[in-house]
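Bumping my old thread because nobody answered last time. Still need a sequence for this structure:
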């Protein structure tokens, strides 16, 4: 199949993204993509029309995959390079990302919020340009000065202009539109046709924070912190998300919200009200995140800002960025430069670049990370990139390890920007008949045999030191106990201070004298650590349970649970002979599906966990947050979403609409007669009445 045909089929839903991703991994297709991605100077190697059409199709396919839960199989750098080549060849930057989902399509009211940005990769002439397709900031400045002159007849020196520099968050664009009190969340969508997906069903929990009383449009970058990305990746054994953006994409494009929604974080970027010609920077962005005001000519300040904010710190968590956005602030200049092809001419993105080189493989080492995950780390001969000596490169997981199929002495290509990345291209010399590097069969920490069929190989031994320490670290993180990192815990463990995991934290005060003699501790640090821990003896029920690191169950989930069911009752039900009773009790709570309920029930069933919990409860004072909140009876919807009018209608009748299944639902609403889904099956088996949306509306009147 040609790339063009693939793109066409994807757009027409005749090919699903997973199959397309697989097709891209075929050797012949992969070689072609490698070829395009590695062209260093498009001006010297102009493409034929056939090649140009092929490249356009490849970029189109990759864009669709990136916007699906499947993810793109190539690096961001390779993608950027191909995209910039198309721009250099006079093809407008592709913004018409087609979304492969069946969501309801809506049009944007504030179309200027949807655009993309011109990208530059080098801030000053001193930056050595490794890839000729990538532009200098000076080139953009010259172009905009010429545009200004063409429009006004006047000369301007943009370098003297004041600019605002902000991190370029690497997430998913989403827009909140408020009209007559109704809030709708929409994706960027297909810009050329102004068709976007309504994702209100996913983003609804965030509405109250940002909704304004008057009509407006707010542009967000929906993010997930690196810490939560790691957390989710450790919870899931069959899926591994390459980066936080991919998880956000998968969550937003899902037909129903799941626990991952708890981990989303919409960062407000711009705001516009009806009648305003240009959007303004959202005040919350300025308040909560680092920004820089300087002149455009202060290139070193901008560079420093970019380097310091590759990960933006916020509440002790980190957001990933891929550059900085530079906006000229003068409103007159903004108006004159204007907007073309969905791009604002008064702002530009400075994107981080990587350097690359070749080196030889010495071997692979295996590390056991915080949650017992076994990570292969490639060891290569020293190579210097961007001034740093690199000799160890993580391969993330077993899938990546297998893909590379390395032998001792093979040559690999190393890309380095923030973290080194290893890849293979046609220039890499491979050792003929070399000795193949094998994945370890036993946990390097505890020696337990590993299941190598997983993408994320994880030590199955619950008592494995790496897993024990991972749980302790997670506990400290969640309860915001400062001054404790993995290396601190590791030292404490080695010296026998954490034999029982989390509960040993509360025994540390008795070992103060020993701890302050340990390397890197000292009296002051020891005192601080112990004080921090002792301050956490009185905990709210949801904080405590949320900190235990139970797979898939966040603090927010426990907040929902304990508001409706006292934690003591949850523990009682877990002890009872029929654990199904606990599951049934939990699913009756709005927002708790069967999946979450089972995760908790299974956790509480394990004798080890029971014991740990019992011992911890003896140490701590737990504050119950059970509240007398009255709840409406629930009506569940499948395959359709209620309009605000529908919600009002249901509320008048004492019902509450929900996307999550409940065995106690009063009835199930389907979009039309004959609609099939797992919820329809459940409703039938439990004898819950099924109504179409139309029936429900008629009933209400
Ligand atoms: Zn182990």
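Sorry it took so long. Here it is:
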């Amino acid at each position: 199949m040609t790339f063009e045909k693939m793109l066409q089929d994807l757009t027409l839903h005749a090919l699903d993204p997973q199959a397309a991703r697989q097709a891209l991994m075929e050797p012949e297709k992969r070689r072609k993509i490698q070829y395009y991605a590695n062209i260093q100077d498009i001006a010297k190697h102009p493409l034929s029309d056939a090649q140009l059409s092929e490249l356009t199709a490849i970029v189109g396919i990759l864009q669709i995959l990136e916007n699906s839960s499947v993810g793109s199989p190539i690096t961001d750098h390779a993608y950027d390079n191909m995209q910039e080549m198309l721009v250099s060849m006079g093809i407008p930057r592709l913004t018409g990302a087609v979304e492969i989902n069946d969501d309801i399509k809506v049009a944007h009211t504030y179309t200027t919020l949807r655009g993309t940005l011109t990208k530059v990769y080098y801030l000053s002439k001193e930056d050595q340009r490794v890839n000729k397709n990538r532009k200098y900031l000076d080139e953009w400045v010259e172009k905009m000065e010429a545009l200004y002159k063409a429009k006004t007849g006047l000369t301007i020196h943009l370098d003297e202009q004041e600019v605002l520099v902000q991190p370029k968050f690497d997430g998913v664009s989403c827009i909140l539109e408020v009209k007559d009190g109704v809030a709708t969340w929409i994706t960027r969508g297909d810009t050329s046709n102004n068709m976007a997906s309504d994702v209100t069903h996913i983003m609804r929990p965030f509405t109250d924070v940002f909704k304004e009383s008057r009509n407006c449009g707010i542009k967000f970058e929906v993010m997930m912190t690196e810490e939560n990305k790691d957390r989710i990746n450790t919870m899931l054994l069959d899926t591994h998300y390459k980066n936080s953006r991919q998880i956000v994409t998968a969550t937003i494009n899902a037909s129903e919200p799941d626990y991952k929604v708890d981990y989303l974080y919409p960062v407000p970027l711009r705001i516009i009200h009806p009648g305003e010609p240009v959007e303004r920077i959202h005040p919350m962005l300025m308040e909560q995140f680092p920004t820089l005001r300087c002149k455009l000519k202060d290139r070193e300040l901008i560079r420093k800002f970019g380097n310091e904010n590759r990960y933006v710190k916020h509440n002790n968590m980190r957001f990933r960025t891929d550059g900085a956005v530079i906006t000229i602030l003068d409103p007159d200049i903004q108006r004159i430069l204007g907007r073309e092809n969905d791009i604002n001419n008064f702002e530009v993105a400075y994107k981080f670049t990587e350097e690359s080189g070749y080196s030889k493989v010495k071997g692979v080492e295996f590390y056991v990370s915080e949650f017992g995950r076994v990570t292969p780390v490639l060891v290569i001969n020293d190579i210097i990139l961007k001034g740093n000596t690199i000799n160890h490169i993580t391969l993330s997981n077993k899938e990546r390890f297998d893909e590379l199929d390395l032998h001792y002495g093979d040559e690999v290509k190393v890309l380095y920007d923030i973290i080194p990345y290893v890849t293979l291209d046609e220039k890499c010399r491979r050792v003929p008949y070399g000795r193949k590097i094998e994945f370890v069969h036993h946990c390097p920490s505890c020696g337990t045999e590993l299941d190598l069929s997983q993408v994320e190989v994880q030590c199955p031994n619950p008592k494995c030191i790496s897993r024990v320490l991972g749980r302790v670290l997670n506990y400290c993180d969640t309860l915001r106990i400062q001054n404790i990192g993995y290396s601190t815990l590791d030292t404490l463990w080695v010296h026998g201070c954490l034999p029982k995991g989390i509960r040993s934290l509360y025994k540390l005060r008795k070992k103060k004298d020993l701890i302050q003699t340990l390397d890197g501790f000292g009296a002051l640090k020891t005192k601080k650590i112990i004080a921090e821990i002792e301050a956490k003896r009185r905990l709210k029920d949801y904080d405590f349970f949320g900190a235990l690191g139970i797979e898939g169950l966040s603090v927010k989930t426990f907040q929902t649970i304990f508001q409706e069911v006292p934690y003591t009752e949850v523990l009682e039900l877990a002890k009872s002979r029929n654990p199904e009773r606990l599951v049934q009790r939990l699913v009756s709570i709005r927002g708790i599906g069967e999946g979450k309920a089972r995760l908790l029930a299974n956790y509480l069933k394990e004798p080890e966990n029971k014991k740990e919990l019992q011992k911890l409860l003896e140490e701590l004072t737990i504050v119950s947050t059970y509240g007398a909140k009255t709840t409406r009876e629930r009506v569940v919807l499948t395959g359709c979403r209620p309009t605000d009018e529908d919600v009002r209608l249901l509320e008048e009748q004492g019902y509450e609409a929900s996307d999550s299944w409940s065995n106690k639902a009063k009835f199930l609403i389907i979009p039309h007669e004959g609609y099939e889904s797992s919820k329809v099956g459940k409703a039938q088996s439990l004898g819950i009445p099924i109504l179409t949306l139309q029936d429900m509306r008629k009933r209400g009147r």
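The chain has six domains: 3-88, 105-351, 354-461, 465-536, 540-623, 633-700. Let me know if any region looks off to you.
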